[in-house]
Task: structure prediction
Amino acid sequence: MAILDVKDIRKRFGSTEVLKGISFSLERGQVLSLIGSSGSGKTTLLRCLNFLETPDTGSVAVNGEVIFDAAEHAALKEAEIRRRRLHFGLVFQSFNLFPQYTALENVTLAGRLLMKEEPDYRTRKKELTAQLEERARALLVRMGLADRMENYPHQLSGGQQQRVAIARAMALQPDILCFDEPTSALDPELTHEVLRVLRSLAEEHTTMIIVTHEMAFARDVSSRVIFMDDGQVVEDGPPEQVLGAPVQERTRRFLESYRQ
Result:
């Protein structure tokens, strides 16, 4: 069974149809790279998967459970939407850290808010908080930030901030990690830092969807590559096929322009 099954996702903003019937599936442990020009719908697709946008049609299932169905979404309560969102961890291209919180506090914030909904929160608050902080500290150590946990975002480089954002996305142990051009705001040296983390996650068979313009990275790390254009999936296959010998003319034109 696929870990993710996306069917006929469509999204319109005003008169512009940004997603035009997106369908694909993803197996556990796969790394899917989404490529395409700006405006092709890649970021909107990630936002739809993370409940930051509501698709007009379609469905999304994780581990066989339908977590979004356009026909019944309006009836969902906010608490249920938050529960379903936990299947995904999203890393934004511009970090989106809270400036008033330290690195550690940014990583634990979502967990602190969610644990208040636990029925035994009052009696287990100290225990739950300790568990949350222990996991957050372990993730920041894994990101190479053991000595930066008490720093605020303005005291961190762009690469360090993005690694905090990755730790935050992993903190609630989502089924799928999603990255929206995670290196676009970084210079080449800091880009290398973040890509090294993503390569490590891929080697551990972490299920990921990555919107990227780093074609060499997509070729080396991806299990699959989807090329999107004008809100549609134009080509979907292994990286050696999509990036090395694309079938569709639109894919070839995109890759040729990218190399120029």
About this structure: The longest strand covers residues 16-26. The chain is about 40% helix and 25% strand. The first helix runs from residue 42 to 49. The beta strands are 4-13, 16-26, 31-35, 57-62, 65-69, 88-91, 176-180, 208-211, 224-229, 232-237.
